[in-house]
Amino acid sequence: MIVQNPTRSFFLLILSAMTLTNCSKETPPSESNEFTGAENEVKLMTLNPGHFHASLVQLNDMAQVDPLVHVYAPEGPDLDLHMERINAFNNREENPTSWQTEPYTGEDYLQKMLDEQPGNVMITAGNNALKTEYIKQAVDHGINVLSDKPMAIDSDGWELLVDAFESAEAHDVLLYDIMTERNEVTSMFQRRLAQNQTLFGELATGDPEHPAIVKESIHHLFKTVAGQPLRRPPWYFDVNQQGEGIVDVTTHLVDLAMWGAFPDEIIDYEEDVEMLDASRWPTVLTREQFENITAMPEFPAYLQDQLVNGELPYYSNGEMLFTLNGHHVHISVVWNYQAPEGAGDTHFSVMRGTRSNLVIRQGADQEYRPTLFVEPVSGEVAAEVGEELERVVEEVNQNGYPGIQAHPSEHGWRLEIPETYHKGHEAHFGKVAQDYFDYLVEGEMASWEVPNMITKYYITTQARELALEESQEFEE
Questions:
Q1: Residue 72's closest CA among 118, 25, 109?
Q2: Which end of the chain is more exposed for a tag (fewer CB within 10 A), N or C?
Q3: Do residues 343 and 223 touch, judged by C-beta distance below 8 A?
């Protein structure tokens, strides 16, 4: 079932008006799309940066990236906040950056970027109702795209995204999303250990009550980023513009499930995925909480019809159950207003094997630091699992990760990973960007990346459809 979204249609109408004078024009790749790794050859264009992730791509200088960045966006608070963040990077005491920003703020900002093309890579992180169309327009005009997640928030958007990938291939440009969580060190080692049959065995099949893979995360709407209180735009709380939680952070968790359990494998959404169940529920925000996050004293007009007794039920929470290659997977995302004192965003992950389970915990007992545990499924294999873990730890100590140790825990072993390997969410953006720039030099991505991006967004958008169906049945 495809649910039409009237608000999204309104935004696409605006986009159509912006591009009407050139809607059929497609620009072939230019010579600037030939990359060698040379200094300053990557020239960024940032389009309508409404989300703080747009700035985190520029958290640090990169030799391959020209310091002059062109920004195309409408005037307003979204652009102002983006410029403040970039200026803060330039003026910080430790390791200041040297970005130069040239903004264009006309109402025809999208068409202006497509016509001028002063850069060869477009960064987009903002209003998700507009993002998929931005992506499609850019690749149609021969522009490489590095996009924040999610690249699609509903089934209509997913179909357009599939078209965008086809266009990117036809125009010889690369379209890629920013999957920062692949660079979180415990996720990296969970993936690595899951490929060790002596230690992990085979991935369990699982069932709906005991999935083979569990990925859960808790996030917070009011928090600090890059040392400053995070100011979110008011449209962030309109699910017609931002998308519901079930299609947002879940993108990372679905990606980790596919990437961690089936590395370097193509997962076909038609053959290898079965959607089983999904649900959604709101985090209710008071007017005062909304003001704390957005600095707006009242809910804007486009949220008024969503209010219940003067408060906003924000559908930021969701869960889904599906199978990958026959293995059951459970994904869950919760957004609370604010973390308890001393706490932060948390991640819980389980990969169940026939010999051991690989568990990432990030609760109070771990001082809110992601920590990886290896837990044998029975006493019969515990000794062999422990010996193999000892061998693996010695190997990784000698090959790029000195200082990692395995210590006994209640159900097996806990990996102690030195703090230096915990780079943090903000630093991961630069790593993903550099990986993408390396792909540009190579002229291609791994063969599984594009089909798995298509599958990933199929899963999240189909989960939304299932959750909406469940909500409607409950209301009836």
A1: 109
A2: C
A3: no
> 283 - beta bridge partners?
314
Give the global pTM.
0.91
Cα→Cα distances 24→16, 21, 116, Å: 11, 8, 17
Pairwise CA distance, residues 131 & 124, whole Å: 7
- In whole angstroms, how far apart are CA 475 and each of 240, 304, 311, 314, 469? 20, 21, 20, 17, 10
Question: Taking the CA atoms of the chain, what radius of gyration do you get in angstroms?
Answer: 22
How far apart are alpha carbons 102 and 69 in whole angstroms? 6
* pLDDT above 90: residue 225: no
pLDDT (tens digit, 9 = 90+) per residue, 42-67?
999 999 998 889 999 999 999 999 99
C-alpha separations of 231 from 77, 296, 409 in Å: 10, 10, 40
DSSP letter string, 88-132 = HHHH-SSS----EEEEE--TTHHHHHHHH---SEEEE-S-HHHHH
Please count the CA atoms within 13 angstroms of the CA of 224 that sit on its side-chain side: 7
Alpha carbon of residue 80 to chain centroid: 23
126 in Cβ contact with 50 (< 8 Å): yes
